[in-house]
């Protein structure tokens, strides 16, 4: 285990362990220490907001801001054909806004290629593992099978191996913005093939996890998701075109995909990783990038409306987005359409969250897309206000495309508010801040032990109550399914819609945060996983699963 303390808790100093010898809590020493310790050495030695801003600026000083925004590379198939994609996961030296940084990539890009597919297509994704550790893929938010060679998180691709995923996208799959990333639940694969798969170069289990049904699961082994996402292994995935459900004047507006990731580097110019001697600190200063660029510039004409896909594809940190002087017109969340559009001045994106929004430019001028100062709880992280992208409004005006409040959107999933309920279940999220260890219903994850003794049944709707007894927010993510949020801390949701990630608020004065969700179990029997999407929490045990039977 690394000797840095991850996610330091309330009342604790966010400093290195004493055996480092050089603890530097004062921001005034930061600049002089950069030369001798390197950026990452200084990053771990201060916790003040002012220190974050100064050190993040130092970390990005070798980068050049202000380039024209470049959308991520993309791959797609025509509406009549199926899609075949090859992703090579490998150690990579990136050039990020002029700075050379070592990390990991799919196909050489820090922001991985955006995969476009259509409802009804079969998508074949061949993953070649050129890393020195095990890896795999999760297709976050897709409603596809969680078994076999589909979106199966227990698959393990060892170093040097190749495996092909096959995703059968349903004809009626919601059209929207999803993403994919490493879901490596350990650094090594089991020596044997646990469930009898002999046709591929992968095993169906991860080290430290027992096969389903084993009454003696192996001891918990931390995962490697935080390392691999932080290093660069994530990208956007788009099904169909959300614009198709909008009023006709909005169906052809220009579209941009904005993938948000942050990066911390060490003195050698490599992305900080969890090792025996170093550790990622999600509360340390970090450089926030849009499509792998430092503060790029996006241009619009006065009166022009654009469609933006907003994707938090990072490992641990939150984004509280604001476009200065503007409101977002939100049309979809986590890939699923709202019944009608909603105006929002701010959008909170924990790790894994996506929003599809419309933005209409005003008069000529320049404004900023920023992430506002935000704390996710007294035991969690505090982030400074940071400009992410400049929006330059210039050139000739164009006829305004109307974006009235509350227009209807086709494609929204049915409201579950009055659905008959087959089961009520409780999920408690808790943690031991001294270890750190994270728990669901008092247990760390084991593939051999489902969270619930009673399986769910296909064709039914259940209500789950999620409680959080810790002092930091936990974004709860459900694989294979989008759920409907009924209430947060007793306040009912006013606009029923589906999402796959929801923030469960931290406890306040001993009262746990509480979220009530409803979800429909449809189409796919098998093992449906859920977890906190702060990757460090998932890696250290805050993950579980439910067995879904026909």
As residue ranges, the low-confidence spans are 1-48, 194-200, 207-215
| Mean pLDDT over the full residue set | 87
The whole-angstrom Rg is 22 Å
Inertia-based shape: globular
Percent helix range:
under 10%
Q: Which secondary-structure class do the elements indicate?
A: mainly beta
Give the beta-strand count: 34
Identify the quaternary structure here: single chain
How many strands, which pairing sense, and closed or not: the largest β-sheet?
7 strands, mixed
Estimate the strand proportion: 35-45%
First-to-last CA distance: 41 Å
Q: How large is the count of helical segments?
A: 5
Describe this structure in words.
The chain has helices at 30-37, 39-43, 49-59, 225-231, 535-539, and strands at 74-76, 83-96, 99-106, 112-117, 122-129, 138-140, 162-168, 176-181, 234-239, 254-263, 287-290, 297-300, 305-312, 319-323, 328-333, 336-344, 347-349, 354-360, 365-371, 374-375, 382-383, 386-393, 423-432, 437-440, 456-457, 460-468, 474-478, 483-488, 491-492, 498-499, 501-504, 513-521, 526-532, 543-549. The chain is built from 5 helices and 34 strands. The strands form 7 sheets. Strands 23, 24, 26, 28, 29, 30 and 32 form a 7-stranded mixed β-sheet that branches. It has a 6-stranded mixed β-sheet with strand order 11-10-13-18-15-16. Strands 1-4-9-8-6 form a 5-stranded mixed β-sheet, with no helix packed on it. A hairpin with a 6-residue loop joins strand 20 (374-375) and strand 21. It is mainly beta.
